[in-house]
Amino acid sequence: VSWIRKRDLHILTVGILTYTNDQRFQAMHSDGSDEWTLKITSPQVRDSGTYECQVSTEPKISQAYKLSVV
To answer: Which parts of the sequence belong to the Ig-like domain (predicted)?
Structure first.
């Protein structure tokens, strides 16, 4: 499972590994669960936008989420 920020196509996380220098982003997952959560600590207005969760199956499964920080 990967989380991508759509505005710049930046891969934020793959599995539980974080691929951004911004340590506010973290993927959360419990063993045995099908749930994956993107946690943004202290979200800021600049974090607003669309984030996509992608599952590496064939075919690929993805779901976009719009975040608004005011």
So the answer is: 1-68
